[in-house]
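lol forgot to send this yesterday, sorry. struct tokens for the thing we talked abt
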């Protein structure tokens, strides 16, 4: 296989694998309805948990993390005889493409999740010491502040630093930086709520609006502003 073909296979294959919407599939097969019409409308495990089905949330978490890891491992196996630098490049391309696929899945008209589970799965497969350090950061921040988004944002920001401190190849550092930037972009609403002190803490019950302006049915999630108030 030529370099161009291998690169194309890593990128296209990784993207298609990352586009698999495990949350949507799990909730539909599990009889919980269309995940995109529930809670925030996000396709990740956190929103699946709002259905009350912890089993489906776990399946989603493992699926979203696993698809990033699988993309990296396939690329790693395909280049196991090509040298460390080339192998690092191909695994980074495949992992980055899988992460991009989760955020912008072709199957869901490019409306995907926020990428935290896929971030950790990809990072653990690409450089497991870095992945473990990032996961430990998430756990510490979540335990201290009880804010899942803050924990994810901190872990993402420190991941490229961990790559450098642990002397991993440059492609892995670029992969970590790429994913970190996109995580911040996808968490723009969470960041605004954090700055306002309005971000819900882990374990707190979400107070989603149940009725519309005139006491009618609740509006779709996208018609509410960041504070949960219906848009005019």
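and heres what i got for the seq, position by position
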């Amino acid at each position: 296989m030529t370099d161009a073909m291998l690169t194309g296979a890593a990128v296209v294959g990784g993207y298609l694998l990352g586009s698999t919407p495990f949350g949507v599939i799990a909730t539909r097969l599990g009889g919980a309805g269309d995940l995109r019409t529930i809670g925030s409308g996000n396709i990740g495990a956190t929103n699946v948990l709002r259905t009350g089905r912890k089993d489906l949330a776990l399946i989603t978490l493992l699926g979203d993390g696993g698809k990033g890891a699988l993309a990296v491992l396939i690329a790693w196996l395909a280049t196991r005889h090509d040298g460390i630098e080339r192998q690092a490049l191909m695994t980074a391309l495949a992992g980055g493409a899988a992460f991009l696929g989760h955020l912008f899945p072709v199957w869901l008209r490019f409306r995907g999740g926020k990428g935290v589970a896929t971030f950790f799965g990809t990072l653990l497969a690409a450089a497991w010491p870095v992945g473990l350090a990032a996961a430990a950061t998430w756990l510490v921040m979540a335990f201290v502040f009880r804010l899942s988004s803050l924990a994810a944002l901190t872990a993402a920001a420190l991941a490229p630093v961990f790559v450098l401190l642990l002397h991993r190849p440059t492609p892995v550092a670029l992969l970590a930086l790429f994913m970190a930037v996109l995580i911040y972009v996808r968490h723009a609403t969470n960041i605004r709520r954090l700055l306002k002190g309005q971000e819900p803490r882990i374990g707190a019950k979400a107070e989603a609006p149940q009725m519309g302006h005139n006491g009618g049915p609740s509006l779709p999630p996208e018609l509410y502003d960041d504070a949960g108030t219906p848009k005019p």
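The chain has one domain: 3-202. anyway ping me if u want another try
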